[in-house]
Amino acid sequence: MRVLFLTHNHPALQPGGTEAFALGLFRALRDEHGADGLFLAGVTALLRERRPGTLLQAAGDRADEMLVSLDEFDRFYLSQGDVYGLAAIAPMIERLAPDVVHLHHPLLWGMEGIDMLRRAAPRAAMVATLHDYFCICPREGQLLTTDGRRCAGPAQDACRTCLPDRAPGDLALRDLGIRGAFTAFDALVSPSRFLRDRFVAAGWDADRFHILGNAVAAAAPAPHRLPADGRRDRFAVFGNVNRFKGTLVALDASARLTRDGVSHGLAVHGGTAWQSDAFRAEFAAALTAAPDAAHHGAYAAGELAARIAAADWVVVPSIWWENAPLVILEAFRHRRPVICGNAGGMAELVCDGVDGLLAPIGDAAGLSAVLRNAIETPGLWQRLVEGIVAPPDFGAAAAQHLAFYRTLSPVTGRRTEHAIRDSSDPVAA
User: Fold this and answer.
1) Which of 95, 181, 235, 273 is a plausible cystine mate for 111, CB 3.0–4.6 Å?
2) What residues does the Glycosyltransferase subfamily 4-like N-terminal domain cover (predicted)?
3) pTM of the entire structure?
């Protein structure tokens, strides 16, 4: 089988869950299942300078992983203005003649990129995985209002409140343009039921969605630390440091524990790249106010095991719905219970009282109470560790995706009667 994967970045340039999963899945299809193909990662000059004659550049030492310079992107309409650049790579895709084209994010590629793919690979089954809410939320796909409330989904009046400078026609054109472009796909994949339900509530056809969960690289679990006093009071947050990921909420929760005299440690692992000066100032102030917390900076994927070894718990304090965050799967891979928000894709992955604890989203006081309960409840940490089920690795995800691809006709993309509907259902899987 020949596959073409596309995403909006390459993990070698900037880490991110979507591109990390897409690349891991592509490599597993290639290395463990014999698939042939190409991985194309869209980039801008902020990450890799484009020079004359270098629309395509190598991503590393592999000939089948390439970067595509795509600088003329409109983030509101999800539109790529460099249609000539897109047309320039069409002959390469035609020569590849993929059996499956799998788009992992429309960022940078745009709706015009989807049209190019359909034209360049007319016989391929086309699949898109929706890793977040960009297609239904014009505010960077966050489904958050300007005052920080979680949004159930797009509505004309509500969207105008968040985007007062946009005319009603702009919002309607955006929606129509994205929906029209996505009719080119023969199947849509969602890593969580929650995300699928948000799209269905926004008017997308439920019958087009298939649930295929995320995965992480196979790895030996990092050893648990052995505290002399038996206290499991070391917490860690992993991922990009920004407002949506709830870093400030976690720091506020830590500060509250300190004021209450609860001994603990909170390690924040992640970089602050692309954040505003205002947010960085808030972050610095929050760190100062939380003396039992420390920022350990950005990390490479290979450093995760060493960093998580110092933690008893992994905290995912995101203030938005999330979809299927890889950090939760990474925590389970290393047998760390997870403390996360009680809604969205987070709550779909973590079972309260079985393999982790749920806390009210965006509520520092509520999170602080859960952290204190985690420390002070005898036997809780061990019981939750024993409840953790190892997450699937990329090899297993590749096998599942390969089986799914084979349910699609290479010409029409029509599903066979045995198409996988929901991989979270053991019977269906």
Assistant:
1) 181
2) 81-216
3) 0.91
